[in-house]
Amino acid sequence: QVQLVESGGGLVQPGGSLRLSCAASVSAFRFYSMAWYRQTPGKSRALVAGITSRGSTNYADSVKGRFTISRDNAKSTIYLQMNSLKTEDTAVYYCSLGNNAYWGQGTQVTVSS
Predict the structure, then answer these.
(1) Average pLDDT, stretch 67-75?
(2) Rounded distance between C-alpha atoms, residue 15 and residue 17, angstroms
(3) Helix (H) and strand (E) counts for the chain?
(4) Cα(107)–Cα(76) distance, rounded to whole angstroms?
(5) Is pLDDT at 101 greater than 90 in this prediction?
(6) Are 62 and 46 contacting, i.e. CB atoms less than 8 angstroms apart?
(7) Quick check: 19 and 8 in contact, CB under 8 A?
(8) Mean per-residue pLDDT for 8-30?
(9) What 3-state class would DSSP assign to 11?
């Protein structure tokens, strides 16, 4: 059974940084595209960043230049390095595997002074 476990969320001041991790329990992890989404109350889940099996990346316009997605196939893990955080980045962040076939449980990121 596929499991995705996110970690690294928390409370940070505006301008600060956090790194999220998502560990996947799946065979042949390296062949899957992965992504980070976020959701705030009353809104749909929105794509933050994606990474293909070959390492190509894409980002939402709102996070370009501030967030970086990466993957470590040896650890079956993806990361989201978030810098220069803004209050509007506050959300529950989810990772997904394989074109959203599977989702993690989410991790809360709160940006507040």
Answers:
(1) 97
(2) 7
(3) 0, 11
(4) 18
(5) no
(6) no
(7) yes
(8) 97
(9) strand
* In the predicted structure, residue 57 carries a pLDDT above the cut 90: yes
Query: What six digits make up the tokens of 3?
Result: 């499991």
**The pLDDT of residue 29:** 95
Around Cβ 44, how many Cβ atoms within 10 Å? 7
**Residue count of the chain:** 113
Q: Within a 10 A sphere around the Cβ of 91, how many other Cβ atoms?
A: 22
Report whether 13 contacts 110 (CB < 8 A): no
Q: For all residues of the chain together, what is the average pLDDT?
A: 97
Neighbour-count burial of 41, counting CB atoms closer than 10 A to its CB (0-12 exposed, 13-18 middle, 19+ buried): exposed
